[in-house]
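Retro notes (design track)

What went well: tokenization of the new backbones is finally stable.
What didn't: we kept losing track of which sequence belonged to which structure.
Fix going forward: every design gets posted as structure first, then sequence, in one message. First example under the new rule, 73 residues:
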């Protein structure tokens, strides 16, 4: 419930940094478990290239959304 509430608040208040926080919450457990999900489950053990490509993408997106330039209209 807290995650969904966070998504709604991010959308309502148009706060891009919130997506960066959510991406981090999604990627940190993946690093611990060795499995990430992007369309389908990807295991670090059976498909390391795709696993790391997805995990690094989430981390880079998090950094960009947390510390990148913000756009205001």
């Amino acid at each position: 419930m807290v995650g969904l509430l966070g998504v709604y608040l991010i959308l309502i208040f148009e706060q891009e940094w919130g997506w960066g926080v959510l991406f981090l919450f999604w990627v940190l457990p993946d690093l611990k478990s060795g499995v990430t999900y992007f369309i389908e489950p990807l295991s670090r053990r059976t498909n390391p290239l795709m696993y790391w490509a997805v995990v690094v993408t989430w981390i880079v997106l998090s950094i960009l959304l947390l510390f990148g330039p913000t756009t205001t209209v």
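Added context from the reviewer: DSSP finds three helices and two strands in the chain.
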